[in-house]
Amino acid sequence: MKIAIVDDDKKQLALLKSYVDRYAQERGKKLDAELFTSGLEYIGDYKRAADIILLDIDMPGIDGIETARKIRKVDSYAAIIFITNMAQYAILGYEVDALDFMVKPVSYFDLKLKLDKAIGRMREMRTFAVVSDGKMCVLSEEDVLYIEGSNQYVVYHTATGCYKVHATLKATEEKVGKGFCRCNNSYIVNLSHVVAIVENDCVVGKERLPISRSKKKEFLDSLNRHLGGIV
Fold it and tell me: Which domains does the chain have, with CATH numbers?
């Protein structure tokens, strides 16, 4: 899980990073925190998109509210937690669907509560309903290995079985989270389940799925970001 910390105060950045590291250790979670000293630095390359964003409101150049507005134009998924000197500014967070806010000086206990809340909401969001064989099924994104497209149908391949759904692969790609990426025109892969890259194939579970030449760079870049720099 990726966390972006955006604050122009380097001491504050270091403090929040230490809190996130402590939280990850206490909760037994893998959290990859990346630090940014301005809103422009963060949104300048939004391929670095995070699951959770700790965003200072009072920053020079482009403040946290405007940064959040730009984020929301391309990402409705990330959990935004504002950090502010004055609580009255936090009401502006409603317009960008901010999850919560923290008032400086931020305590570890406060951050821990906010991260618990953010991760809990993300867990709820990572399920979706599909109609397969006339039945409504609720699937968890983490259980989906890959999605196969064929004409007007897609098949969700999961650890417990397959679910055939009347839908296009393009529409499905827009529905699933950013932890998924196409490896070719027929398959969308859950990057968390990629166990190896062998020649021009990605190994997902026990299956080898071909990576097309046109998708290879995008797919490997996405996998690299998802795994925190390890391919």
Answer: 2-125 (3.40.50.2300), 127-226 (2.40.50.1020)
